[in-house]
Amino acid sequence: MNPNPNPQPNRRPRAATAALALLLAVLPAAAHEGHAHKDETPPPATRGDGPQRLADGSVFLPKLTQRQLALRTQLTAAGEQPVSVELTGKVVLDPGSGGRVQSMIGGRVEAPAGGIPALGQAVRKGELLARVHPAVSPLELGGQTAQAADLRASLGVAERRLARLKELEATVARKELDAAEADVQSLRERLAAIGQSLRHHEDLRAPVSGVVAAASVVAGQVVEARELLFEIVDPANLRVEALSYEPRLAADIAGAYGSAGPGQDVLLAFVGAGRSLREQAIPLLFRVEGGNATLALNQPLKVIAQTRSQVKGVPLPTAAVVKNAANQEIVWVKNAAERFSPRPVRTQPLDGSRVAVVGGLQAGERVVVQGAALVNQVR
């Protein structure tokens, strides 16, 4: 008699066990054949097809987004660049082509026939800008009027005496006649001076030809003596003054640039340096040679002074350097068609629109030179 009347249930567990053992034997061999996965760093995973900041800090930027942001890259090239120093400056008046108009007396302003010149109006040298009538108190006016009356009375007496002496010219000494004539002439001149002082006014005229840069006066305004009323400049002849805390810099300047903001650069020519400290610094004077910036008097300006010393670096546009969350200067390097990595760098200014990367970047790398700020904002 058969001791196992139903052999089918025992056969199925044995078949399942054999299949599981075969699978466990095959999987390790397939996984480790030829290399070890534990030594590899998997590429950062992207979340969709949109712009995004990856786990390693790099940025994934699709081609379509790059075109929309108008990104531009540049292949870097290293070379010798001039060492530059950044100074703080401002636009000042050229003493040869500009001037100031001040009143020598205090009084009330009167507009001339053509009116008081407005800001930006062109004026010629010697043109009447305004007239100032002196401010005289009633007591002073009364004293001058009384003095004029006394002089008129004395003049009348002197004239009558002179007339009598001339009638007796044959019997009077010549010296008495000359003394009487001198007294009459003196009294007339004194009376004329008093009368002119009562009607005196000061004409304010343009000292140079140019454009009115500042006008702080209106008709009827009461001004003080030595108060600045007009400033006249020649827009084609402006100066920039900067302060340097390194006295030896003045002897090493080879060129200079000025920057009033993005896209507002001017070319400067070094004129000279002062020999007296101002605010514990040496004043340096530059002449504006040209540029695409419209400068105003007393406008602050960033001055980049290039020296004759050289340093090895990679020149890049200023827009290529941005700040990261730690306030470090970085550039964005293009590693692949749609991947950009941040690179901390050290820079020195070259001119108003370029910097020299002296550390953190090698020649032959492709760097974002337009739109780097937009790449830096991707999160």
UniProtKB/TrEMBL annotation:
Is the keyword Signal in the record? yes
What Gene3D superfamilies does the record point to? 2.40.420.20, 2.40.50.100, Helix hairpin bin
Q: Name one GO cellular component term.
A: cell envelope
Query: Which GO annotations describe the biological process of this protein?
Result: copper ion export; plasma membrane copper ion transport
Span of the signal peptide: 1-31
Which stretches are tagged as biased composition: Basic and acidic residues? 32-41
Q: Where is this region: Disordered?
A: 32-56
Question: Which superkingdom?
Answer: Bacteria
Q: Which InterPro entries match?
A: MdtA-like_C (IPR058627), MFP_Cation_Efflux (IPR051909)
- One Pfam family of this chain: RND-MFP_C
Coiled-coil ranges per UniProt = 148-197
Q: Where is the Multidrug resistance protein MdtA-like C-terminal permuted SH3 domain?
A: 316-372
User: Which key words tag this protein in UniProt?
Assistant: Coiled coil, Signal, Transport
UniProt-recorded name of the protein: HlyD family efflux transporter periplasmic adaptor subunit
Source organism (scientific name): Azospira restricta
Q: What is the lineage of its organism?
A: Bacteria, Pseudomonadati, Pseudomonadota, Betaproteobacteria, Rhodocyclales
